[in-house]
Structure formats: C-alpha cells, structure tokens
Prior knowledge:
Blueprint: E1 8-13, E2 16-23, E3 32-40, E4 45-48, H1 56-97, H2 101-136
Antiparallel strand pairs: 1-2, 2-3, 3-4
Amino acid sequence: MVAALPEYYFRTRENGAFVFRIEQETRQRQIEMEQIAVVNIRNGEVKPHGDRDLTDEDLARIDAWMAERRAILAERTLDDIRRTVDHLNQTAHWVQTRAGDDEIEAVTNDLLLAMHDLRQVLVRKRADRVMKERAAG
Length: 137
C-alpha cells in the first residue's frame, strides 16, 4: 500500500518557502505540483503565484505551516546556541592541553573580541530584565 501524499508541499528556502498544491489524480497518473504561493516567514507575507486567488483552505494550511516552521527554527536556534557553549568548552580545553603558541596566537584576538561582545550583550540584556522586574514588582 502506497502512502497518500499531502495536499500541499512547501519547498523551503532561507526566508520562507514556495508553496505547491499536489495533484495526484491526473490522466497520466503522474504527480503534478502547481505553485500557488510564495511565503516569507520573517514578515508573514504570503504572495499568490501569478494571478491566482488563494482559497481559505490554502491560507489556513500556509498559516499552519508558518507556525510550525517558526517553532522548528526557534528550536534549531537554541540547539545551535547550546552547541556553541560546547564548542567554547572544547576550545578552552584545546587551548589548555594541545594548542601550540602559534595556533593560540592565530585565534586569540578573534576569540577575545567575540567573547567580549557576547558578554556585553548578555550583561546588558540581564540588567534590562532585572530593571523591568524591579519596576514591575
């Protein structure tokens, strides 16, 4: 038994997707993908493809996909940050145990500036949050 294909296909791209409606019941028994829209996930814009009018079902499916996609991207961002913490720990261990003087010299300024920048942003954000909490409480 062959699994049924979904009615819509979203070809993801960096800032959204191309939206296709899937047609399975063609005369030649081929699958046809008809582009119906372009979606921008950053600003929520949905542009119908060509002179097409999107149905309420089309818009509902697109909205559901955008919500799911935003959640996936948020999870990936947090995972990337956690991996960055792991990389920083591995870098500290490498510097302490295996790196040669020339290797350390090659990366020191870049690492120090990036860590300094990150620290400033984190401290500022935490201070803003504490001030808001004190003002509210």
